TrEMBL record:
Name listed for the protein in its UniProt record: Probable branched-chain-amino-acid aminotransferase
CDD domains named among the record's database cross-references: D-AAT_like
UniProt EC number: 2.6.1.42
Alphabetical keyword list: Amino-acid biosynthesis, Aminotransferase, Branched-chain amino acid biosynthesis, Pyridoxal phosphate, Transferase
Cross-referenced InterPro entries: Aminotrans_IV, Aminotrans_IV_CS, Aminotransferase-like, BCAT-like_C, BCAT-like_N, Class-IV_PLP-Dep_Aminotrnsfr
Family: Belongs to the class-IV pyridoxal-phosphate-dependent aminotransferase family.
Highest taxon, organism lineage: Bacteria
Pathway(s) of this molecule: Amino-acid biosynthesis; L-leucine biosynthesis; L-leucine from 3-methyl-2-oxobutanoate: step 4/4; Amino-acid biosynthesis; L-isoleucine biosynthesis; L-isoleucine from 2-oxobutanoate: step 4/4; Amino-acid biosynthesis; L-valine biosynthesis; L-valine from pyruvate: step 4/4
UniProt key word Transferase: yes
A GO biological process held by the record: amino acid biosynthetic process
Species of provenance: Pseudooceanicola spongiae
Group of enzyme by EC: transferase
Cofactor(s) this protein requires: pyridoxal 5'-phosphate
Amino acid sequence: MSRIVYVNGEYLPEEDAKISIFDRGFLMADGVYEVTSILDGKLIDFPGHAKRLERSLGELDMANPVTMDELLAIHRALVAKNDIVEGLVYLQITRGAPGDRDFAFPDPAETPSTIVLFTQNKPGLADSPAAKKGTKVISIEDIRWGRRDIKTVQLLYPSMGKMMAKKAGCDDAWMVEDGFVTEGTSNNAYIVKGGKIITRELSTDILHGITRAAVLRLAAEAQMEVEERNFTIDEAKQADEAFTTSASAFVMPVVEIDGVALGDGTPGAIAKRLREIYLEESRKTAI
Ligand code: PDD
């Protein structure tokens, strides 16, 4: 069934939505995005995603074509128009279509930003079979650019990482730089040792996950010990358990790293508990 999508002020059937071939998102990957999950027809962590979007735009000197109130209204309208109970809203803003290809940024007064939003219907998102089984990851070198804190649409290397994982019979890849794990291809990475949750500290090396912020807050509230520091793949392989967080998969247990099973090879108690707490709290605060 055709979706209703949003493009530059209009709600349209997806087959009628058009973007210029000169759009800088298409030619230069000159764009930023956000993914917000929907549970019970409501948006999860919307204020966090909206705030990070503003930051990404600011870091790239890109104009925001909508106010945050408008953005919330568009998200809600798309959820309603597409009858989404569980799923995602994808949002992308690019530096627009200047009418030709040029490395220099166009004047924002002459070239408005492009804004696109669409929904992805995912019934059963919260009750995921993958979360019950746990996921398997491989490690790969992190060769992305140096501003991973900006949520840009430059996703070729993460896509390649995902393909490398698939080829190895696994689900995802954890990226490693200077010997330390940065993050997963589309999620933040954690290990658990002796009851302590360990995850890399925030910097320009990783995306400041909205789910990460919520999960670390909830972990602290549940009296779990959290340490924000670098860890290696070798340390991860010796961990009791591991997991990832993202808006699209919440808290996802990891049960194998580079062929080494963690613990008894099933989702760990802390990962399972954090998933439960996160889902419960998210449903309560959803808007
Ligand atoms: N990915 N790190 C990377 C590289 C990511 O792409 C993402 C999100 C995260 C987790 O951030 P958050 O908790 O705010 O979703 C970490 C989204 C879901 C995606 O690309 O589909």
